[in-house]
Structures are given as structure tokens and as C-alpha cells.
Amino acid sequence: MSKTNCGCVPQRDGEPAINDLPTESPYTSLQVGYSSTVERVAEELRRALFEGELAPGTPLREIALAEQIGVSRSTIREALGSLVAEGLASRAPNRGVTVNELNPDDVRDVCRARVALEVAGVRRWDLAAESQHDAVRAALADFTRVAGSRADTSTLTAAHLAIHRALVGLTGSDRLLAVADGLGAEVRLALAHVDRMRRNAREQVVSHRDLVLLLEAGQIEAAVAELEHHLAGAQRSMLEAIHEPPRRRDAPS
After folding, report:
1. In the chain, how many domains are there?
2. Do 109 and 95 belong to one domain?
3. Quick one: CA torsion of 110, 113, 119, 124, rounded to 10 degrees?
4. What are the b/e assignments for 120-129, b being 16+ CB within 10 Å?
5. 191 burial class (0-12, 13-18, 19+ CB within 10 angstroms)?
6. Least confident of 34-48, 159-173, 212-226
7. Which of helix, strand or coil describes residue 12?
8. Domain boundary residue among 40, 65, 99?
9. Which one-letter DSSP state was computed for residue 246?
10. What is the pTM of this model?
């Protein structure tokens, strides 16, 4: 049996009154803006980490960061949560959040995973789609361009790692790409310190170009050997950076 609501609109039994129906929130756009602020803060913190302005082991204090950046502590807290989720920072009871410090075992484990993923991609070069080949070529071209510019270390390292991600992409597996992306933050943080220390971007371009030329020529096993040699060198450089970090420019020589 139906009844009327306010004497004018029919209402069936069990239905909510029209005045009780949810209305569109006027605050929806504010939530989008807030999320954007969190991401912008997280991106600025990532930049500082990758540029070495925030060294491994540096405490990330909510109050100090909020005052410096000019945002709320809750925004800082969420941004720090993103860094923790990405493996760039760690949260410990009574210590708060600190920039991650990779120890030698961490470096070896990350590099072992990189070898497994990237070699799997290289071995599938002949089976990969042309679009996946093009992704490798495009990443190499971009790295070559960035290395020849005055790009900062963060941009250079990102372009460098894009080549290695494209190699994993040759597997055609979205799951393996997801694993590579999961390692990406740790690798980028470690390589950022290495790239600042060795400053050999042009040599890195030549090394990656040689690898791609071997693939284009169908010399897969030679390409695997070149990649393993390259990644072994990266591991050595990372371990050296951990044991003897680069000196600050204003430090005495």
C-alpha cells in the first residue's frame, strides 16, 4: 500500500522519504584537490631523495616538513605513507619515518632480482612484439638525449632505468613488469647515489647502445653476457656507494 510524502508525492512502503535520499556532496572536488596536494608533496620528497638532498638514514619529521613545505601535518603523513609503501622510507615505532638505507645484502638481493627479470626479457627478444622492441629503442633514444643535456641526477636515473624496464617488458608479462616496478624505487634510490658519484652518463649510453645492437643483430647470448656484465658493474658501484658515500661539494678534499 502506498502513502504520500508531504501530501504530494506517492511513496511505496519501505522506500525512504525523498528528504532522506542522499544528495551529491558539495565537497567532492575538495577531496580531489587534497589528494593532488599529497601527491605533489610526495613527488617533492622523492626528488629530494633522488637528488641526495635527503640522504639515507635522514629522519623525516612531520612538523618540520609541514612548516618547510607549507602544508598540514596530515598531508605530510599521507605523503610519507606513500614513500614507505614504495620502499623509499621506513617507519619504526618511537622513531618515526626515515629515508631507507640499503645494506649490502639488500643491494645484492635487488640486483639478483634485476638479473632474473631483465635476462628473461632479453632471451625473449626474438619472440617479443615489434612494439616491445620499439619501447626498448625509444627508451635508449630518450636516455641518450637526457645524458647529453644538463638534466639533474633524478631525471638521468629515471631515463636510465626506463631502458631496464623496457627489457623486462620484452617478456610480455604484466606481472613481471609489476615486480620490476616494485623494485624500481629501491634501485632508483641506490642508483641516484651511484650516478652522482661516478658521473659517467655517456659511458652508460655506450654500454646500453652496445646491448641493443647485439639484440638487433640477433646475438642473444652475447646480449645476455653484456647485460650480466653491466648489472654486475652496477652492483659493485652500489656497494661502493654504501661503504663510501660521495663527499659533499663543500667538504674538504
Report:
1. 2
2. no
3. -130
4. ebbbbbeebe
5. buried
6. 34-48
7. coil
8. 99
9. P
10. 0.73
